[in-house]
Amino acid sequence: MLTSSSIGAIGGILIMPKFMQDYGIDVKEKDILSENIVSTLQAGCFVASLLAGPFSDKYGRRWSLIISAIITCVGIALQAAPTLSLPILYVGRLVAGFGVGAASMLTPLYVSECAPRAIRGALTGCYQLFIVNGVMLSFWVNYATQYHWEDRNVYLIPLSLQAVPAICMIVGMLWCPESPRWTAKMDDWERTTYILSKLTNLPEDHEYIDHELYGMAEQLEIERRLVGDATTWILLKEMWLIRGNRNRALISIGLMVCQQMTGVNAINYYAPQMFQALGMNSTESSLFATGIYGVVKVIPPFGYVALVCIFLFAAFFQFGWGPCCWIYVSEIPSARLRAMNVAQAAATQWLFNFVVARTVPTMMKNMGYAGYGTYFLFGSFCASMFFFAYFLIPETKGMSLEKMDELFGITDMLRVMQDMEHRRPYSHRSTAEYELKEEDKWQRLSG
Asked: How far apart are CA 234 and CA 238, in angstroms?
């Protein structure tokens, strides 16, 4: 919800007459200023999502999330400060973008690394569920303040309430453990065992804990044999020069491009303006329609057949391209590349999010009557995504994170290297042939 509160509130605030009056926004300049104000957040998100990966690899996922929430609070404080200054508002949006962008990359990463495989998809999908809940609540807050206040509180309250999810994240993460896969990567196996025991509510000597530890150790050993101790530059080369890793990176980037080209954030940012273009001319009626859009995004679409297509799109989006993209990009990378892969995917998402935020008002103004050409453009993108998903995305349901290397052919490469070292012809053999003996495994985990 930290991400969605910043996304959902601004669209309704920009059309409030009191906001436009206080900030001296001319009706003729409204579209271009709306694009600038909205897209400043995405610019900060793009930069932060790239930097958050290396930072979280060094300092851990937990503290990185706490710091990102603190930065978001600072940005929101600047936005809500009653300065009536557009430059301060821009700076606040940019700073908040740094925190939001980092959190958008770190949250699905942290959840996927902590969740058991049986419920990993569901828990990572909850990330998208909370996004749409946050957007919905932001829409209704805008609608409520428009009715109950006439002074500057009408927009200061929605701006200030953006900080509530960030504050909740700071408090909540203080009670959460570090990612067990990050501690394993740091070679802290005692702490990893303790965290897994707490997350699963199982004793430390349980068979499931033993199996998870062995899977982590096996994957980390494979990665060390492939590359060894690596710098960021070496990791980038590993990601883009090894075919299996390159395929995963390209799939992750492609998914995020497709997610934004559905046009979902065009509606999230500019729903009031879109509803006004469709004939709802008053601020209250456009904000009311925006609030209904938020509800439909959360509730399954059964019974909403009679609603307009924009509401149906909002509902169906939450079954696929909303949650599944984040689930997929956070679970397919190998352990040493996971943060970097998710960071690149999140940066791509925010880059195309920026493109959407920066262009949609102009598109609505110039692409046909009432901007109808905009809907046809995004609809064409949606139709083409069927072929991308059908032909290029392998199924990962029920697979552990440590088995993704086998799915994308990395373990085959290791077998080739091992066969070359022993000067034997390469043959397809099961991974079990290379498994360590039980006593060797525990010696490595403890040493």
From this structure: 6
Q: Which residues contact 231 (CB under 8 A, 6 or more apart)?
A: none
- The token duo for 67 is 């710091």
- In angstroms, the CA 378 to CA 262 distance is 6
Amino acid at the residue 135 = V
Contact between 361 and 29 (Cβ < 8 Å): no
pLDDT of residue 230: 64
**Three-state DSSP class for residue 306:** coil
pLDDT of residue 226: 62
Distance CA 193, CA 160 (A): 41
Domain limits, the chain? 2-176+227-403, 182-226+409-447
CATH architecture of 2-176+227-403: Up-down Bundle (1.20)
pTM of the model: 0.70
- Indicate whether 421 pLDDT > 70: no
Is 300 a residue whose pLDDT tops 70?
A: no
How many angstroms separate the CA atoms of 236 and 129, rounded?
32
Q: Measuring CA to CA, which residue among 124, 165, 148 is closest to residue 9?
A: 165
The answer to whether 113 and 182 have CB atoms below 8 angstroms apart is yes
Residue 65 pLDDT more than 90?
Answer: yes
CA distance 93 to 281: 28
Taking a C-beta distance cutoff of 8 angstroms, is the pair 373, 393 a contact?
no
- Which residues in 184-205 are b (16+ Cβ under 10 Å) and which e? bbeeebebbbbbbbebeeeeee
Task: Give the separation between CA 162 and CA 233, rounded to whole angstroms.
Answer: 37
CA 199 from centre of chain: 23
Residue 149 has pLDDT above 50, yes or no: yes
At residue 342 the predicted structure's pLDDT band, cuts being 50, 70 and 90, is: confident
Biggest alpha carbon distance in the chain?
Answer: 81
Chain Cα centroid distance, residue 300: 22
- Residue 268 CA, distance from chain mean position: 15
Measure the CA–CA gap between 152 and 279, rounded to whole angstroms.
27
Whether 79 and 89 have beta carbons less than 8 Å apart is answered as yes
For residues 237 and 220, give the distance between their C-alpha atoms in angstroms, rounded to a whole number.
18
Q: How does DSSP assign 222-254, residue by residue? A: HHHHHT-S--HHHHHHHHHHSHHHHHHHHHHHH
d(CA 154, CA 213): 53
What is the pLDDT, as a whole number, of residue 245? 86
What are the residues whose beta carbons fall under 8 Å from the beta carbon of 380, sequence distance 6 or more? none
